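Late entry, heme C complex.
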Amino acid sequence: MIVFPRLAFVLALTSVSIFVVPSGAKAALDETFTEIAEHMHEHLDQVGAIKAAVIAGRLEDVREPANWLATHEEPARLPSVEEMRRYAARAAAAENLVAAAAAVSEIARTCGDCHLASGVAVLMGYSAPPSRDEQSLTTQMQRHLWAADRMWAGLIGPSDAAWKQGASILAEVKLAASDIVVEGEQQTEITDLTRRARRLGTQASQAASVESRSVLYGEFLSLCATCHSLTGAGPAPR
Ligand code: HEC
Ligand code: HEC
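Prediction complete; structure with ligand written out below:
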């Protein structure tokens, strides 16, 4: 039997375009899908807000979207929902950015688990990675963000290709601790953070299982969060 994948092009509230490819007999009926699809965009917005808050180092902005994810009604009882809620509750109660980073990464993994179990693959659109012509702290950070976004799409899709694209750009980031000047002892911490970010790029390229990927992603986000709260720099509030 030949199965033609149904391609849905969606202009969502998000800035990215999204394709869904139902793959196989487990895909639910079309009517159910429409309601679920609408709800999914809400998911994407809320979990994206949690991730952005973590990257920016603002724990106070994690709570509201995390609470929403932990308590909202689902249109259908599908696998992974309880697990997703559990991690969302963990993010809402997180006492520090490291815990919030770990929780939001596990949420993204449970999104991907359910997509896989439901026979869908969510493919997110993306722009070209920042050009290599210009090398500055700002462009290195834009590379970080590009990598973080592609690896994120890799977890949620789930998409092996997206994960690997993100990880390979991460390996290209050339961030020298001396580019970031802070006071006294903090410089040692900056050196440690940049070293860990580099090592993580290699580990992420090698990680094959979704479990190891979500753990690494949590560590990755915690590096952004820690350095941005340490330096008071980072992306502007959304
Ligand atoms: C309980 C199972 C389940 C969970 C958990 C889940 N999804 Fe989905 N998701 C689906 C199904 C089924 C579809 C296909 C719906 C369709 O397109 O008809 C889907 C589709 C999507 C789409 C594409 C919607 C469209 O058609 O434009 C996005 C985006 C999405 N999910 C994001 C997420 C995010 C982000 C999370 C985690 C916060 C998540 N999903 C968690 C089952 C799930
Ligand atoms: C070792 C410290 C450090 C780490 C780690 C770090 N950042 Fe940054 N980030 C900075 C500094 C400093 C700036 C301000 C740069 C500037 O002046 O343009 C910044 C700025 C940014 C900006 C704003 C860039 C712009 O266009 O103005 C983004 C986006 C960003 N970081 C993303 C990330 C992401 C995503 C991560 C984690 C994957 C990360 N950063 C990890 C220190 C860090």
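The first strand starts at residue 8 and ends at 11. Will revisit in the morning.
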